[in-house]
Design brief:
- The protein is an all-alpha fold.
- Helix content is 75%, strand content 0%.
- It has one domain (17-354).
- Helix 5 packs antiparallel against helix 6.
Length: 355
């Protein structure tokens, strides 16, 4: 039997997607190099030489955060956005590009199945991303719009900050290599565990929502010029997720003196400190690697290993703003799972530190 040769239409379709995929990776690699890889490469030498990567974004060089006020909110937002604005822009651009430049069947083959290989792939793809959960949230929204599996999307989302190799190196040089090992071990448990449990849960076994599938199909088959489609998705992402992000950063910035109270010398290593700072770290929002100077500053004022380990896992994992950004694109039980797992892993890491 003779082998069927590809039709002209198939060849044309293949060429169309080939240059789009190439364009996507050009955007991604150049953006990551400029925003993440190159700056963090040089920052690693600073961490090795000075055993510091800067001041705590919570309290500067003191143990006390500013009192709750509009001024505290405004100052925190200024410092925070100065650190993340480039990554936010990159996240929104990539989140739009993944919907118009990557074939949806590619994404579904790699990340769409409810199996372990999809979780491992998502975790591996997250490692070079090096973004906080707020900056990676637009990319995760784009993936979910393309019907990527719940567990894979969660593993990618959590894996970006928790498995960030640059942050782990910073933690090793600044806080000690035990901190780096704790981050790796408990980070893997959190990222892979959440992804696996989510994909095995009842909410992930349901058939894809018909309306969402129709929207994803419409995006990929839209006949408008590519640049119009791209900017259309870019605008939708910006309008739907950035306003609530900006508002909640102001709120948590204003409340940081309540979330991180003054350290009592010699007594900041009990179970109540572990529980309190685990919850605070889960709610609070920081830029990438911001947990390292926060922990360093608090430990200088008496914070024990237990609460420090808890913050090491919970501060980067999720936050109130990042949860709000992806709220409409996950089953609510999936986000409850991610939040609960972050708290539990933070508590266990804190107990390890106490022991």
């Amino acid at each position: 039997m003779s082998q069927l040769s590809p039709t002209p239409a198939t060849i044309q379709s293949g060429k169309k997607w080939a240059w789009r995929i190439a364009l996507f990776f050009i955007i991604l690699v150049i953006g990551e190099w400029y925003v993440k890889w190159n700056p963090y490469y040089h920052k690693a030498f600073v961490a090795a030489a000075k055993h510091s990567i800067g001041h705590s974004i919570v309290s500067g060089q003191t143990d006390v955060a500013p009192a709750v006020s509009l001024t505290a909110a405004w100052h925190y937002a200024l410092h925070y956005y100065d650190a993340v604005w480039e990554a936010v822009i990159l996240g929104v651009v990539v989140g739009a590009a993944v919907q118009v430049l990557i074939p949806r069947d590619w994404l579904l083959r790699a990340l769409g199945a409810n199996k372990v290989s999809s979780i491992l792939t998502a975790g591996a793809l997250a490692v070079p991303g090096m973004m906080c959960t707020c900056c990676s949230a637009p990319i995760v929204v784009g993936l979910r719009k393309q019907q990527v599996a719940v567990g894979s999307a969660l593993a990618f989302w959590l894996g970006n900050p928790v498995l960030n190799p640059a942050t782990i190196v910073f933690a090793g040089f600044v806080l000690g290599w035990k901190f780096a090992m704790i981050r790796i071990v408990f980070g893997l448990i959190l990222v892979l565990g959440v992804g696996f449990i989510a994909n095995r849960s009842a909410f992930a076994q349901a058939l894809p929502d018909t309306a969402r599938t129709a929207v994803a199909d419409a995006v990929q088959t839209d006949s408008r010029p590519l640049w119009i489609r791209f900017f259309s998705q870019l605008g939708r992402l910006s309008i739907t997720i950035l306003p609530v992000y900006i508002l909640l950063v102001l709120v948590v910035g204003a409340l940081r003196s309540w979330l991180f109270p003054a350290i009592d010398f010699g007594h900041a290593d009990g179970l109540l400190w572990v529980i309190g700072l685990t919850l605070a770290g889960t709610l609070f929002v920081i830029p990438t690697a911001g947990e390292v100077p926060i922990i360093q500053t608090l430990m200088q004022y008496g914070l024990g290993l237990g609460p420090a380990y808890a913050l090491l896992l919970t501060l980067p994992a999720i936050s109130a703003p990042s949860m709000a950004m992806v709220w409409r694109h996950f089953p609510k039980r999936a986000l409850l799972l991610a939040t609960s797992a972050t708290v539990v892993v933070g508590l266990v890491a804190g107990l390890v530190g106490m022991l």
